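Hi there. Long-time user, first ticket. I'm pasting a complex I've been working with (about 422 residues overall). I'd like to know whether the download I got is complete or cut off, because the file seemed smaller than I expected. Thanks.
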Amino acid sequence: MSVKTQEPVITRVSDLPTSEARWVALKKVEYVDQVGTARTWEVAVRKTRSAKAGVDAVAMGNIILHPSRPPATLLVIQYRPPLDAYTIEWPAGLVDAGEAAEEAAVREFKEETGYDCSVTSVSPIQAADPGMTNANMQLVMVEVQLKEEDGEEPPLQRLEDGEHIQRVIVPMSEFYDRLVEYAKQDRTIVAAKLFHFAAGIHFAKTNRYGI
Amino acid sequence: MSVKTQEPVITRVSDLPTSEARWVALKKVEYVDQVGTARTWEVAVRKTRSAKAGVDAVAMGNIILHPSRPPATLLVIQYRPPLDAYTIEWPAGLVDAGEAAEEAAVREFKEETGYDCSVTSVSPIQAADPGMTNANMQLVMVEVQLKEEDGEEPPLQRLEDGEHIQRVIVPMSEFYDRLVEYAKQDRTIVAAKLFHFAAGIHFAKTNRYGI
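Hi, the file is complete. Here it is re-exported in full:
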């Protein structure tokens, strides 16, 4: 197991023909709009979506429960080449062919965090970034129930080759504030879906509209 | 002004070379990871980001206030070619060169909804879909203060050619439930950021963890 650690560095960025891409393709969509006008739209699509699953990815909104510690959530920090930055996200992963969202969530959560979890709810299918891509996902809420003797350090991960994922456990009472602090750090960016969920909680607790 | 309305239909989908794309490009990123291994990643990037702004887009989390009606939020429904579906989103738009997030938010909100708004907060920069793209955005919370005599119908929009955007006003008390209902409709998908914000509010109000 390699322990050498250094800051990731981008060495080259080049145009990629769709024919040579393995994961992502660029498509031109020609369509006729609501008033009968022929138009085009440029779309990035994942090549990996299973026709059976119909959904690209799951993200695991998670609550870590312990008898004597406050409810918390586990966030993952990893270098993301598309942004050349470290991102703060909930654990997430692509859904395998023939896999249900709940199954993918439990499998990916175990791989990325080391924890066994139980699913408490599964969201409808959501569009990741509707103006640019057909990528979609489901938010699966999960719960980890620890025992009194379980320590604060998460168990061993089972990462794939090339995955370097740091885990942090944040008390839910500090969730939103910690994301705002992370966003101020150098070379660090919070993922939009995670931030929006935390912002929703923050809004519910602080808004002056009586909502 | 054209009034003819029909269901949009996709007539052709074809591979798009990055050299011919105007809005989106496909790139191969070569990088050296944390343990010194050379790796590659496939990335979709927007060609339109202003170097000055450093952010692609803003979304407007909005609260519509009226003296005698409950606080509400305005959602936009539009056909999105990448998904071949109607999406439910908060109003959003690309940031122009030299424009601050607050300015883009007020301008785009007026164009898409017809309403003047005031900005109440601006989020940190967030990554739209970190595994696939460098696209980023800021959530700008805005407020619309209506007068007693203002009706329930929003004012005229100022849409660009080809934009067909339907507006619906949803009481905040029904926000989450209405999104879940929309997601069940045919050819309709809720945008992930919007859903996550509403799910955060829902979580804050209903969770059994005392959070």
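A couple of notes from our side: Residues 143 and 190 of chain A are 22 Å apart (CA to CA). The helical segments of chain A are 101-113, 175-184, 192-206.
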